[in-house]
Design goal:
Elements lengths: L4 E6 L4 H11 L10 E6 L5 H13 L5 E7 L2 H5 L4 E4 L11 H22 L5 E4 L4 H10 L9 E3 L2 H15 L6 E2 L2 E3 L7 E3 L4 E2 L2 E2 L6 H13 L1 H9 L5 H16 L7 E6 L11 E9 L2 E4 L7 H23 L4
Helix pairs in contact: 1-9, 4-5, 5-10, 6-7
The structure holds ligand NAX.
InterPro entries: L-lactate/malate_DH, Lactate/malate_DH_C, Lactate/malate_DH_N, Lactate_DH/Glyco_Ohase_4_C, Malate_DH_AS, Malate_DH_type2, NAD(P)-bd_dom_sf
Pfam family, one: Ldh_1_C
Protein name: Malate dehydrogenase
């Protein structure tokens, strides 16, 4: 039988953790043949709640779940980790300035990057979910100099899935008819969901919708969906975020489908004018366990302007954390 894969989840006692852990333990993250050993990292005050979740995981008697370790020590949590899902983060609270938020998260993602550098397995794959996801991923990546930079990614798959859902409803087509949906830039309100390269039944999505809908409804609806969920549910997206994290890692490990691509925040190599080193969302394919940025797409002025604005925001966040000495 295959040896268990070590999957570390931070923020395990949180609401995304509660949705995510059961999907992982049931085999949906890595596939139905791959046993997993879960490593849960929490802050000391939340360890007990994580233990409660672990009790429920045991009670599911998942055939693929080889074990659960719970700790408040990052070094232990990432020791031997093959996959790391960095979900725990410091949320923005009332009256908090952006600088305070970045600093509080730097205090989380710097030591986690160091712990990954010190002890993770050679094939470590990191997905940052906790916000601000792109910049948190950048902080962790910069503190893991021995790990190839491309192993650090930020999640924009939820934005992509939201875009698929909106377009599917608009055109009354199943999501399976839609290909090549791209989210560009930052996982924030400036993100750019791109219908000019998305295809529905082999034709560009943009030519099948009104331009006003694309600009004034589709883009803002996708970008502000998180706020709409909070408004309706009284709590932020959790199961959908967990589902997107599962999609991201599954595709990373198992490869993207031929003739399609997905979106992920990955380290820029300078493609599409995105400054090298920023962790920005791109159209990507996964081959042999590695992401590659899809090359050669033409961008019109509309797309160019939107991408540049989101990338500018990412550069500002990077400059802010650099100024705080976090990278
Ligand atoms: P919760 O507040 O329910 O859970 C967060 C958990 O993280 C808490 O249990 C907390 O104790 C733990 N935590 C805090 N600091 C930690 C540390 N240093 N080490 C380990 N654990 C730590 O938040 P939840 O709703 O689960 O959301 C988690 C994060 O995901 C938030 O930052 C949220 O903004 C972000 N999201 C990102 C999305 C994306 O698409 N990238 C979408 C969903 C979500 O909003």
């Amino acid at each position: 039988a295959q040896a268990p894969v070590n999957v570390t989840v931070t923020g395990a006692a949180g609401q995304i953790g509660y949705a995510l852990l059961f999907r992982i333990a049931s085999g949906q993250l890595l596939g139905a043949d791959t046993p997993v050993r879960l490593r849960l990292l929490e802050i000391p005050q939340a360890v007990k709640a994580a233990e409660g979740t672990a009790m429920e995981l045991s009670d599911c008697a998942f055939p693929l779940l080889a074990g659960i370790d719970i700790t408040d020590n990052a070094k232990q949590a990432f020791d031997g980790a093959n996959v790391a899902l960095l979900v725990g983060a410091r949320p923005r609270t009332k009256g908090m300035e952006r600088g305070d938020l970045l600093e509080a998260n730097g205090g989380i993602f710097k030591p986690q990057g160091e712990a990954i550098n010190a002890g993770a397995a050679d094939d470590i794959k990191v997905l940052v979910v906790g916000n601000p996801a792109n910049t948190n991923a950048l902080i962790a990546q910069r503190h893991a100099p021995d790990v190839p930079a491309e192993r650090f990614t930020a999640m924009t798959r939820l934005d992509q899935n939201r875009a698929l859902a909106q377009l599917s409803a608009k055109l009354s087509v199943p999501v399976t008819e839609i290909r090549k949906m791209t989210i560009w830039g930052n996982h924030s309100a400036t993100q750019y969901p791109d219908l000019f390269h998305a295809e529905v039944n082999g034709r560009t999505a943009a030519e099948q919708v009104e331009r006003e809908w694309l600009a004034d409804e589709f883009i803002p609806t996708v970008a502000k969906r998180g706020a709409a969920i909070i408004e309706a549910r009284g709590a932020s997206s959790a199961a959908s975020a967990a589902s997107a994290a599962v999609d991201h890692v599954y595709d990373w490990v198992n490869g993207t489908a031929e003739g399609d691509w997905t979106s992920a925040g990955v380290v820029s190599d300078g493609s599409y004018g995105v400054p090298e080193g920023l962790i920005s969302s791109f159209p990507v394919v996964s081959k042999n366990g590695a992401w590659q940025i899809v090359q050669g797409l033409e961008l019109d002025e509309f797309s160019r302007g939107r991408i540049d604005a989101s990338v500018r925001e990412l550069a500002e966040e990077r400059d802010a954390v650099a100024k705080l000495g976090l990278i």
